[in-house]
Amino acid sequence: MCLQALAGHDATTPFFLYFAIQAVHTPYDPVPGWKGDTYEGMLWDSDVYIGAIVDSLKEKQMYEKTLIVYSADNGGTGEGKNYPLRGEKHTNWQGGMRAAAFISGGLIPEAMRGSRNPTNFHIVDWYPTFCFLAGVAGTDDPPEPPSAVDPSQPGKNIYGTKSFPAVDGVNVWPLIVSPPAPANRSAAHQYLVLSKEVILAGDHKLLVAQNFGWPHTADNGWKPASGGQFTKPSETMPCMATDLAGGLNGSLPGVPGQLPCLFDTSADESERHDVAESNAALVTELWAELNHTVLTAFCKVGTEFSKTPGCDSTPPDMLGSCDPACASKYWRGKGGGAGPVCGVPGC
Predict the structure, then answer these.
(1) How confident is the model at residue 123 (pLDDT cuts 50, 70, 90)?
(2) N or C end: fewer C-beta atoms under 10 angstroms in the chain?
(3) What b/e sequence results for 126-165 when a residue is b if at least 16 CB atoms lie within 10 Å of its CB, and e otherwise?
């Protein structure tokens, strides 16, 4: 389908393709023509398809103006190898949260090809970055600002029925074509919240607890480079404990009586050494910022939220016209089979 869409595209007009590769996900299926490890064969298969897309772009003389972003959405699990990172998918360790990614294409300046960018980026940054490259606004501000966060009322709905969070990603294109020198991991985000329990600030990572709902007994350690079983840690850390309540439900992160861990991910990318005790001021700063951000979550579940429209569903007057038949026809005309039914152009 992707190759067909590209083959039929007018090369004089912009082209956007979102290709969600399922080939390296479970279930692990043997790849025809591949002899060897099944997981590695699945990765090879995805590489073949990416290569076919690149070849088609070059044949249509579109490659030189193309940006290709290749990114995982989380760390590996099962046969996935995260070495030397700790943990895996479903955990708050770097093995679950630091995803492999690279960019390519003729749009990348020659001086930057083959380089490594030091900045802490997040996958949400691609939306405003793509918008910038397309020449359109990458913001989406609410018609009314939210009310202030109140730590004494963690379940408070600060958005009501007329507000919502603005886009929190940033345009990172300037940092890609001209990375900061000296290296500055906070160039895009002074603080970067990755989950209810994790916040980054430059080289440092505050980890409050493991996320609720997943067993973490086995995956608190490290897998060797060759894969296989986890090596269990020889000592316990407070951040190995599982957070109390699942989801962003109005409660602040953390386990009563347990302090967060702090890691220097530059000097200790395997998260073996908790440096919280020697950096008490930084722990306080990051924990306060994490708590504040958690309280700005749009769809927390709590008593007030269950009574207030605007979180679990969008208010009708903000949806726009909803015409399923018209929307279906519109998306089919765009080469797809499904999409939003409300607010669709021409419907």
Answers:
(1) very high
(2) N
(3) bbbbbbbeeeeebeeeeeeebeeeeeeebbbbbbbbebbe
Q: Which of these, 84, 109, 92, 121, lies nearest to 268 by C-alpha position?
A: 84
| pTM for the model | 0.85
Closest CA to 298 of 243, 245, 250, 246: 250
Q: Give Dmax over CA atoms of the chain in angstroms.
A: 62
Give the confidence band of 69 by pLDDT, cuts at 50, 70, 90.
very high
CA-CA distance, 156 to 338, in Å (whole number)?
Answer: 35
The C-alpha atoms of residue 253 and residue 297 are separated, in whole angstroms, by 12
Q: Is the pLDDT of residue 99 over 60?
A: yes
Token couple for 334: 């765009």
Torsion angle defined by CA atoms of residues 323, 327, 328 and 331, in that order, rounded to the nearest 10 degrees? -170
- What is d(CA 64, CA 13) in angstroms, rounded to the nearest whole number? 14
Task: Please give the backbone phi and psi of residue 231, each rounded to the nearest 5 degrees, phi first.
Answer: -90, 120
**Percent of the chain residues topping a pLDDT of 90:** 50
Q: How far, rounded to the nearest angstrom, does the alpha carbon of residue 190 sit from its chain's CA centroid?
A: 17
Exposure class string for 1-24: b at 16+ Cβ within 10 A, else e:
eeeeebeebeeeeeeeeeeeeeeb
Query: Residue 232 and residue 185: Cα distance in Å, rounded?
Result: 30
The residues, ordered by sequence, that sit 6+ positions from 188 with a Cβ below 8 Å of its Cβ are 119, 120, 121, 122, 125, 170, 172, 175
Predicted local distance difference test score (pLDDT) of residue 245: 63
Instruction: Return phi, psi of residue 130, to 5°.
Output: -65, -40
For the chain, the domains span 67-313, 316-347
Contacts with 82 (C-beta within 8 Å, 6 or more apart), sequence order? 75, 76, 88, 94, 95, 96, 223
Q: How far is the C-alpha of 23 from the C-alpha of 31, rounded, in Å?
A: 9
pLDDT band of residue 305 (cuts 50, 70, 90) is: very low
- Mean pLDDT check: name the lowest of 10-24, 61-75, 167-181: 10-24
